[in-house]
Specification:
There is one protein chain. By secondary structure, the chain is α/β, with parallel strands linked by helices. About 45% of the residues lie in helices and about 15% in strands. The strands form three sheets. Strands 3-4-5-6-7-8-9-10 form an eight-stranded parallel β-barrel, surrounded by six helices. It has a five-stranded mixed β-sheet with strand order 11-12-13-14-15. A two-stranded antiparallel ribbon has the order 1-2. α10 links the parallel β11 and β12. The relative contact order is 0.08.
Length: about 425
């Protein structure tokens, strides 16, 4: 479920049932054209649908003209405090502007920006965050932070509607994950405009990714949110894009590149799985297709837990196995697992996405698996089979009971005494 209303930023649709759009923000001075354009190209290659650039100076407005012309994805101009820069950014060709009515100088100046946006048919992202609430709501932030955020957002929406402007999306962010979740849940029930999601100032690549995954993942799983930005303390904006797609991929909302499945390892591990996983992850970056690849640390659980994977490997001290869709393909030396895995993947694509199987190699792999797996382990696959067998047994029992009951039933219409009534003599 996405917001009912829909806007268009360049050629990207937001809301109204469109896929969740991924955006990020450049970390460079916008007027530094070589660096800014290089970063825009990197985030576009990583899969970003939109990119925002800071426009705090007139030099940035001038650069914006070239950026908009040369960018492979739509550009959003990020404006604070100076409403004339917002107007100039629209005139320079920005596909959208980000505006916080609370710090732009009052409703009159917002109205000037909106008038220009109408003229050029440019959408606006409006919103608030916990660090820039209007003055009259700042005390409320300490007593009811969620209520303060929602009130500020609703006031912003009311202002835009009073200006007869509906071509906007709303963002409402907090540094607090619980407050971000609660406020967006509440606002989504009250407005039908597209929602931009993010946890503001989330932190480093490690902590920020986790906080964003919890906050945005919770909302997206609820069907709330039309576009997202992961805010990380990194100079590499493409990292934000990668995290965003991992969240969306985990929720099956977007497909972008391969999906890697890897077991957490345990005392049964007999080879350097940590290095293997990292190498597989690195080499998968060369593939755009959403292929699913599994790395299992041992053969104890067989391949049942990754039966759905397009390709996978499981290993032991000296040898391992490559499999596809739960079926063994070949046994190989542990040292050759990764190379052989990618040979099979490349053969798969070269053959038009057909798994090529050598029966002799598959038989050898099957034999290796049977010799190494723990046949007593209650794997998900075996538990499922046990449940299936139990259900079949119950169905057979019910069928047999029904057959016995049917044979014992007497059809009254064929009985010699059918329809007769008996009464005890007085």
């Amino acid at each position: 479920m996405s917001s009912k209303r829909q806007i268009r930023v360049g050629d990207v649709l937001i809301g109204g049932g469109a896929p969740v759009a991924v955006q990020t923000m450049t970390k460079t001075e916008t007027a530094n054209l070589p660096e800014t354009m290089a970063q825009i190209h990197r985030v576009a290659e990583a899969g970003a649908d939109l990119v925002r650039v800071a426009v705090p100076r007139n030099e940035d407005v001038e650069a914006l003209k070239t950026i908009v012309r040369d960018s492979p994805i739509p550009i959003i101009a990020d404006i604070h405090f100076n409403h004339t820069l917002a107007i100039k950014a629209i005139e320079a060709g920005a596909h959208c502007i980000r505006l916080n009515p609370g710090n732009i100088g009052g409703p009159e100046k917002v109205a000037e920006v909106v008038a220009t946006a109408k003229q050029y048919e440019v959408p606006i992202r409006v919103g608030v965050n916990s660090g820039s609430l209007p003055k009259h709501l700042r005390e409320m932030e300490f007593t009811d932070p969620v209520g303060a955020l929602v009130a500020a957002a609703e006031e912003t929406v009311a202002l835009m509607e009073s200006l007869d402007f509906g071509d906007f999306k709303v963002s409402m962010k907090s540094t607090s994950v619980p407050n971000t979740i609660a406020s967006n849940r509440l606002l989504s029930q009250r407005i039908d405009y597209p929602l931009h999601l993010g946890v503001t100032e989330a932190g480093t690549k490690w902590t920020g990714s986790l906080k964003s995954a919890v906050g945005l993942g919770t909302l997206l799983a609820d069907g709330i949110g039309d576009t997202v930005r992961i805010s990380l303390s990194t100079f590499h904006a493409e990292e934000e894009v990668k995290v965003a797609f991992e969240i969306l991929k985990a929720l099956k909302l977007r497909e972008k590149g391969p999906v890697l499945i890897a077991c957490p390892t345990c005392g049964r591990l007999q080879f350097d799985m940590d290095s293997v996983v990292q190498e597989v992850e690195h080499r998968l970056q060369a593939y755009d297709d959403p292929i699913e690849v599994s790395v299992l640390g041992c053969a104890v659980n067989g391949i049942g837990e990754a039966r759905h994977a397009d390709f996978g490997i499981t290993g032991a001290k000296d040898a391992g196995m490559i499999f596809s869709k739960g079926e063994p393909l070949k046994k190989v030396k542990t040292s050759e697992l990764v190379d052989e895995l990618f040979k099979e993947i490349d053969r798969y694509y070269a053959s038009g996405k057909q798994v090529l199987r050598n029966e002799a190699e598959a038989a050898e792999a099957t034999q290796w698996l049977s010799e190494n797996e723990d046949l007593s382990a209650m794997t998900p696959e075996r538990l499922a089979q046990m449940e299936k067998d139990k259900a079949a047994e119950q169905a057979d029992t019910l069928a047999a009971e029904a057959e016995v009951a049917e044979k014992a039933f007497v059809d009254e219409s064929s009985s010699p005494t059918a329809g007769r009534r008996f009464s005890r003599s007085a």
